[in-house]
Amino acid sequence: MGGSVVLAASYEARSYGVHGGMPGWRARQLCGDLLFVGGNFGRYQQFGDDVVSIFHDFTPRVERVSIDEAFLDVSGAVHLFGSPTEIAAAIRRRVRDEIGLPVSVGVARTKHLAKVASQVAKPDGLVAVDPARRVRVSRPPAHRTDMGRRANDRAAPPRGGDLYHRTTSRYRQPDPGQTARPRSRSKVGSSLRKRR
């Protein structure tokens, strides 16, 4: 284990503080019963391809951004398969039934909100952001997203990852030169943890 690095950690290991990029010796300190297993990139790639194949059964507008992430534009498929949330639920069922994998899905009007919603939905859920409500993401998720480290660092102080709903009644008018702060906050996702 000398120079090993954790590439990915299960949710069970994460509960002990183990995370990707962590030195193997540190992971073993945090979780003495930790089991290190080898990876199989070819198999991961095949699973990813199989999942994307199911996506294409619902829409041709699939933007794959990594081995296990994609954005789908289902606006042209609602007349065939139902609302975006119904489509997301159907995709999750098919992936579970046909491939045997859990899928976390975020449904929103923008890619950024869909990405945040999918993070909130982890490890195996569906979160839909109501398009009729205005939403403000006040802080980036505690972990890095594919927006990149610099974009995350500039977005807000690295203090947590709460997703807040915003309506006009929940905000006071700011004094000139000040930033508005919410009077009440409703936390949507508990899977986003505060940084230590």
Count of alpha and pi helical runs: 7
Integer average pLDDT: 76
- What is the assembly state of the chains in this entry? single chain
**Number of DSSP strand runs:** 6
Question: Which structural class matches the secondary elements?
Answer: alpha+beta
Proportion of residues in helical segments? 25-40%
Spatial strand sequence of the major β-sheet: 1-2
| Low-confidence residue ranges | 143-147, 149-196
Count of individual domains: 3
Strand content: 5-15%
Radius of gyration: 19 Å
Explain what the structure shows.
This protein is α+β, with helices and mostly antiparallel strands and 196 residues long. The protein folds into 3 domains: 1-39, 3-Layer(aba) Sandwich (MutS, DNA mismatch repair protein, domain I); 40-103, Alpha-Beta Plaits (2-Layer Sandwich); 129-196, no CATH class. 33% of the residues lie in helices and 12% in strands. A two-stranded antiparallel ribbon has the order 1-2. Strands 3-4 form a two-stranded parallel sheet. Helix 6 links the parallel strand 3 and strand 4 (126-128).
